[in-house]
């Protein structure tokens, strides 16, 4: 086996040896930090390396993590006061950077105006897109992140801009390998040749805050990704956030149309970016994310190697895959982009609404499709959390949207922390009604997420709303996923893909807030809406985690609880209706199955049949019965169906209050059927079927 040493234009074939083999020459200082690339991979057993060493001993793993934390003890944190003092005393540097930004973006805006005036706007799109990418790259990490966000929005940017800005995800300019290798040795306190048996001679990807090398650990042979932070990155982003924060103060004071606290939003974003600068924190984020979400077989999260991680160096498991935006490459592997996007949406919903801990930077460079069809999440520097109360309020908000209950929607903004309790929401209700009555001409699932965001934004601007920072990151996360889906299908609707998750949560979650939301969805004006229940079951069954065993348990608990008397009254009424529909439907089916000459003999040539009711009433009963049977069929068709889901009802019937409930149901059914029988005997005109 031979090794190829290559760095800075120097290359030499070396014999295979133990560890790094460095030639003694005047360029040896450079060579000690060069990359050793093996001509062929090491032999493995059954296609896998001996990676069980990592994580085999939990105590060792915790000890390694503790050492990594000590190496990152001096990592910077975002402190706007310190940044203000630092750059407030450097007016020349501030003015120079301000002019640099104004010249870069101003010249681009001027060219667009000239293109529009000369009628060459469309013809010059590609050229202008390239120029914008170069401007963002030149302006540094803050603007690179802005370009990354725009690269996932085909509904905002033309295709030419999307293609060019997509290069900002992992095709940025690199910094010298010599600096990267020096950083690794300094941060980890070990020579390069004692850590890796090989490392790529140049970065395989460059991101806004660092660049990544592919390497092989010497102690285990495991292939890893080594991320090294860009030198001087703190200085660059610190100055940009100082300028942007001052702009936020100006907007808060003079721009009335924006009611949100812009400075708070800037501070939240800056805090997240500074967290990205601490790679030990990123490693801990990855571990937590893996624990919460990698329990699903189609989600992959790489492991972290703490012995080789510090504040500026991160070593993690290598993941083979294709960026989610590369549709052709994904399809060549026999995979479907929309399947992977749906996996991402379901995982994102769990992040946002189940555990509240979510990946706040899911651009295509951080989402990979593996050859096995898994969706791999990378880059855990920017994470955020949804408050618990807000998680349930968001689901309830969807219920209120479906019900067009705009008064309840307006009250949701208290729980979402959009409004303070002293704000009167009654003036907001007409604005919500005007927007959603128009938007809901189609079903909720057909709405585009961006349409909702834009429409709500127009409402928010008119009233004293304060959009919390976590919500802004949620919007960014979901709009990125919708943007990825739009690459594959321009008609994709993220709400349609999300609805099965909402339906499953409503049917199975015992949280009191969601339990009340389910009751609110299923009952209206004292009547049970069977079509809503059927739709929830149809949608909920599309979620792979849906279980009939858990469905409706929240309703049963509320029904049998001390506060469920009002619901019990409604259920008794509905049970009587359903039983009557089943019995009379069976009678009607039996009648229709009898030969016509037998009917004449049995019913004395009475053309109205065996039931004294109108055709419309009979049709309504048959429809109710069939709907109940369909719902039962949906429950039975569930993969985890178990007849014992009805056991709680039987158990409750043994309790005194439950026996009273059962007696009321039986009494109501008996009374109803007796009245029907009397009508039939006397052939009296039917009365209203309401109890």
UniProtKB/TrEMBL annotation:
Gene3D superfamilies: Transferase(Phosphotransferase) domain 1. SUPFAM superfamilies: Protein kinase-like (PK-like) (SSF56112). Residues 198-528 form the Protein kinase domain. One of its GO terms (molecular function) is protein kinase activity. Pfam families: ABC1 (PF03109). Belongs to the protein kinase superfamily. ADCK protein kinase family. This is Protein kinase domain-containing protein. It comes from Corchorus capsularis (Jute). The lineage of its organism: Eukaryota, Viridiplantae, Streptophyta, Embryophyta, Tracheophyta.
């Amino acid at each position: 086996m031979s090794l190829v040493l290559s760095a800075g234009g120097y290359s030499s074939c070396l014999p295979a040896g133990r560890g790094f083999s460095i030639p003694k020459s005047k360029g040896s200082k450079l060579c000690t930090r060069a990359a050793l690339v093996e001509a062929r991979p090491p032999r493995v057993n059954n296609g896998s390396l001996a990676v069980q060493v990592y994580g085999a001993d939990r105590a060792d793993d915790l000890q390694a993590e503790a050492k990594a934390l000590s190496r990152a003890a001096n990592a910077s944190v975002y402190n706007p006061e310190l940044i203000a003092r630092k750059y407030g005393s450097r007016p020349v540097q501030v003015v120079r950077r301000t002019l640099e930004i104004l010249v870069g973006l101003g010249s681009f805006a001027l060219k667009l105006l000239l293109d529009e005036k000369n009628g060459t706007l469309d013809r010059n799109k590609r050229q202008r897109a390239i120029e914008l990418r170069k401007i963002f790259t030149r302006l540094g990490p803050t603007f690179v992140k802005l370009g990354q966000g725009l690269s996932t929005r085909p509904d905002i940017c033309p295709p030419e801009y999307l293609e060019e800005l997509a290069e900002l995800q992992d095709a940025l300019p690199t910094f010298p390998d010599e600096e990267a290798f020096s950083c690794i040795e300094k941060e980890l306190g070990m020579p390069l040749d004692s850590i890796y048996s090989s490392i790529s001679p140049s970065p395989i990807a460059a991101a806004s805050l660092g660049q990544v090398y592919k390497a092989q650990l010497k102690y285990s042979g495991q292939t890893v990704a080594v991320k090294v932070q860009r030198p001087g990155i703190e200085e660059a982003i610190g100055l940009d956030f100082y300028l942007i924060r001052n702009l936020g103060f100006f907007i808060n004071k003079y721009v009335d149309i924006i009611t949100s606290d812009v400075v708070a939003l800037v501070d939240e974003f800056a805090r997240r970016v500074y967290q990205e600068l601490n790679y030990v924190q990123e490693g801990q984020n990855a571990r937590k994310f893996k624990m919460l979400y990698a329990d699903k077989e189609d989600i992959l999260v790489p492991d972290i190697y703490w012995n080789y991680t510090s504040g500026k160096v991160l070593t993690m498991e290598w993941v083979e895959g294709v960026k989610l935006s590369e549709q052709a490459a994904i399809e060549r592997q026999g995979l479907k982009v929309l399947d992977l996007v749906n996996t991402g949406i379901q995982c994102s919903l769990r992040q946002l609404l189940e555990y509240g801990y979510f990946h706040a930077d899911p651009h295509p460079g951080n989402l990979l499709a593996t050859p096995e069809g898994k969706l791999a999440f990378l880059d855990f520097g920017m994470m955020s959390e949804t408050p618990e109360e807000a998680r349930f309020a968001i689901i309830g908000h969807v219920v209120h949207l479906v019900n067009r209950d705009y008064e309840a929607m307006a009250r949701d903004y208290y729980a979402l922390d959009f409004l303070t309790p002293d704000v009167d929401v009654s003036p907001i209700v007409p604005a919500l009604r005007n927007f959603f009555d128009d938007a809901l001409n189609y079903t909720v699932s057909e709405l585009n997420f961006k349409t909702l965001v834009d429409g709500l934004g127009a409402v928010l601007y008119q009233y004293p709303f304060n959009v919390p920072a976590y919500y802004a990151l949620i919007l960014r996360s979901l709009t990125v996923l919708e943007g990825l889906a739009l690459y594959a299908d321009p008609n994709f609707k993220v709400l349609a893909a999300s609805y099965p998750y909402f339906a499953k949560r409503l049917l199975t979650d015992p949280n009191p807030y969601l339990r009340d939301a389910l009751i609110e969805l299923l009952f209206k004006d004292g009547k049970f809406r069977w079509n809503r229940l059927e739709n929830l079951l149809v949608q909920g069954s599309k979620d792979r985690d849906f279980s009939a065993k858990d469905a409706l348990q929240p309703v049963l608990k509320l029904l049998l609880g001390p506060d469920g008397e009002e619901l019990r009254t409604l259920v008794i009424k509905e049970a009587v209706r359903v039983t009557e529909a089943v019995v009379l439907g069976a009678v009607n089916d039996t009648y229709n199955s009898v030969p016509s000459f037998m009917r004449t003999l049995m019913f004395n040539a009475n053309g109205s049949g065996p039931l004294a009711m109108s055709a419309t009433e009979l049709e309504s009963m048959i429809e109710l019965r069939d709907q109940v049977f369909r719902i039962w069929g949906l429950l039975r068709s569930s993969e985890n169906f178990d007849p014992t889901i009805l056991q709680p009802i039987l158990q409750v019937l043994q309790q005194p209050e439950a026996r009273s409930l059962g007696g009321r149901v039986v009494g109501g059914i008996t009374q109803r059927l007796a009245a029907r029988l009397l009508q039939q005997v006397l052939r009296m005109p039917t009365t209203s079927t309401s109890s």
